[in-house]
Structures are given as structure tokens and as C-alpha cells.
Amino acid sequence: MSQQTFPEPPIDLPIDGWLYEAHPVSGCRECAAAMRELSQAKQAGDASRRFEASRRVRSHPHRGEK
Ligand SMILES: [Zn+2]
């Protein structure tokens, strides 16, 4: 009999962490827009939109940075 003593923890892939990670630059309008999108997507539970938004924060050239 194989009885599982410990319930399996919900798998939260650590790799997802950086996918959704965003480091907005303050004063950058593009960042602000992307972060708004990110929080909306998070509330909506839309993972691919979250990913797109955080990628947008990471990949665009930041203005307002000197
Ligand atoms: Zn930016």
C-alpha cells in the first residue's frame, strides 16, 4: 500500500519568478504603463499578459534615466 504521508506542496516553479519580475525605472512612462498592465494582468490571473508586461519593462530603452 502506498500511502502518501505528506501532501504534495503546490508547485510554484521558481523559474516563473524572474519571468514576472520587473524593475521599473521611476520617471519612465513606458515602465509606468507596463507596470499598470502587469498589475491588471495579475488581478485577471492572465499569466501570459503578465509575462508580456514584465518583459516590456525589461526590454525597452528607459527614458528618464540619466
Ligand atoms: Zn522604462
Break the fold down into its secondary structure elements and pairings.
Elements: H1 15-19, H2 29-44, H3 47-59
This protein binds zinc ion.
Zinc ion is lined by residues 25, 28, 30-31, 60, 62.
Helix content: 40-55%
Based on helices, strands and strand pairing, what is the structural class? Answer: mainly alpha
Biggest sheet: strands, sense, closure?
none
**What value does the Rg take, in angstroms?**
17 Å
- Average pLDDT, rounded to a whole number, is 82
Q: List the quaternary state of the chains.
A: single chain
Shape designation: elongated
Along the chain, the helix and strand elements come as HHH
Uncertain stretches: none
- Are any ligands bound, and if so which? zinc ion
Give me the number of helical elements.
3
Instruction: Measure the end-to-end span.
Output: 65 Å
Query: How much β-strand is present in the residues?
Result: under 5%
Count every beta strand, where a strand is a DSSP E run of 2 or more residues: 0
Explain what this protein looks like in three dimensions.
This protein is mostly helical. The chain has a domain of 37 residues. It is built from 3 helices and no strands. The longest helix is centred in the middle third of the chain and has 16 residues. The termini are far apart. Zinc ion binds next to helix 2.
Short account of what is shown:
The chain is mainly α.
Task: List key phrases describing it.
single chain, binds zinc ion
